[in-house]
Amino acid sequence: MTNEERALHELVYQLESSWNAGDGDAFASLFAEDADVIHILGGTYNGREAFRASLHMLFGTIYKGSTSHYRVQKIKFLRPDIAIVFMRQHLEFGEGAAVDELDARPTIVAEKIDDKWRIVALQVTRISEVGAPKG
Length: 135
Description:
alpha+beta; about 25% helix
């Protein structure tokens, strides 16, 4: 694994740990100022501040106390300073007997900005029964 791949794995680890801490500020800080996000239901957020505000709402409501686990599946470098990171995500949310789970395939476009990897685009696609690969 190269140093840049390690750095991108660390970025994904930081996403996971800030999500699991319910820390919308830390999660959003990993994004570029002009980042674009397409969430699991297809809605969009343009810019880090809009996304940060949505995270505060989500961590206070539906995703309060949720846990997310990310696994990097593949990293593809388009240039030395731009990479696509393909992941798998398992999310558990809800309370008591009403805990729900879902699996998704987040895809990140990351750019090295001022010597630090930042997310410039994120799209999260839910894995449904239809079209989900076996295993």
